[in-house]
Specification:
Elements lengths: L10 H10 L7 E2 L6 E2 L4 E7 L6 E8 L2 E2 L1 H10 L13 H14 L5 E5 L4 H10 L14 E5 L5 H10 L4 E5 L4 E5 L4 E4 L1
Parallel strand pairs: 3-6, 8-10
Antiparallel strand pairs: 1-2, 3-4, 4-5, 6-7, 7-9, 8-9
Length: 189
């Protein structure tokens, strides 16, 4: 996924320079609110979608500010592919995704299985699986189901739990972890 062309030396240009140089921040992760906090710094998500074939490796936050244009690109990437609809995702979920990825110390991108879901998609999935909540935070743009080849579901869930930032669902049989920015809680095994 590209950031497109922009004229001048804008914040977006700086972002592309950072991304091209593959700057990797070493943020400090605080348990307070489970969000990333200041080492002066950058937050980045790195994901692929097996369903769409798309990938995103984007710096979405610099020195205390979310970058709206990049957040919109992440929203589109995390869209409901069945309905081809995107929604404004809660950027705190991006923070959880970035924090856990950093804690897992891997360069492998997360495989995004599910981000935003329309109510219709969620209802269809609910009919076919007991593990889909009626009022899923996916519908509110506050959740992601993620997988890594290089890390176990147990390792991923422990990293997500260490953030103390939201819900962590462990789906060992399906080999993925649900991460959301709702109330702190855990389930599954």
């Amino acid at each position: 996924m590209s950031f497109g062309d922009t004229a001048g030396f804008s914040r977006r240009s700086l972002l592309r320079i950072f991304a091209a140089a593959t700057v990797v921040a070493a943020p400090t992760y605080a348990k307070a609110f489970g969000l990333l906090r200041g080492s002066g710094d950058i937050r980045q998500v790195n994901m692929i979608s097996g369903r769409s074939g798309e990938s995103i490796n984007a710096i979405y936050w610099i020195d205390g500010d979310y970058i709206p244009e990049v957040c919109k690109e992440i929203n589109h990437f995390m869209r409901d592919l069945r309905a081809d609809q995107s929604a404004k995702m809660d950027p705190h979920n991006f923070d959880i995704i970035a924090a856990t990825h950093h804690l897992l110390d891997t360069k492998e991108p997360y495989n995004l299985l599910s981000g935003y879901r329309t109510p219709g998609t969620n209802a269809m999935l609910r009919e076919n699986s007991r593990g889909v909540a009626r009022n899923s935070l996916h519908i509110k743009g506050q959740a992601a189901d993620l997988r890594l080849k290089s890390r176990s579901v147990g390792q991923m869930s422990k990293a997500a739990e260490a953030c103390s930032a939201g819900g962590v669902g462990v789906y060992s049989r399906s080999n993925f972890v649900h991460m959301d920015c709702g109330p702190v809680r855990t389930w599954g095994g």
